[in-house]
Amino acid sequence: MTDTPTLVGELVYLTGITEAARRRLKEGQLLDLTSLDERCTTLCTRLETITGPDRQTLQAAFLALVGELNLLEAELKASRDSTMTEISAVTQRRRAAGAYGGAATGGGARGR
Fold first, then answer.
1. For a disulfide at 68, which of 6, 18, 46, 50, Cβ 3.0-4.6 Å?
2. How many domains is the chain partitioned into structurally?
């Protein structure tokens, strides 16, 4: 026999944590998702063994969690891509400034 109310509670809790992580990401805060990942892994292992009517009871809460996790993943990827674009722009500016600086300190044309 499964402890369906406990599993539903865990699903709802993890959905809330995922929603909070999405809000924090939008605010530009750093995230440590280690605990979320571990708890989701543990929960999924437990859910794999559920059958019968309990499975139907848990399905809606599970799908809500999966939806939030998918949104978080997409937002994390977008944040990563944005950060990589910013890093690339800074790197290009540094290279340009370095090349210009080298010309000004004698690395460029002489005798002007």
1. 18
2. 1
110 CB-near residues (< 8 Å, 6+ apart):
none
Q: Which of 94, 79, 98 is nearest to 33 (CA)?
A: 79
Q: What is the pLDDT of residues 17-46, one digit of tens each?
A: 999 999 999 999 999 999 999 999 999 999
Question: Which residue range is the domain that position 59 belongs to?
Answer: 39-76
Does any domain span residue 49? yes
Which percentage of the chain shows pLDDT scores above 90? 72
To the nearest 10°, report the CA torsion of 76, 29, 64, 40.
80
Average pLDDT, integer, range 4-25? 95
CA 17 to CA 22: how far, in whole Å?
Answer: 9
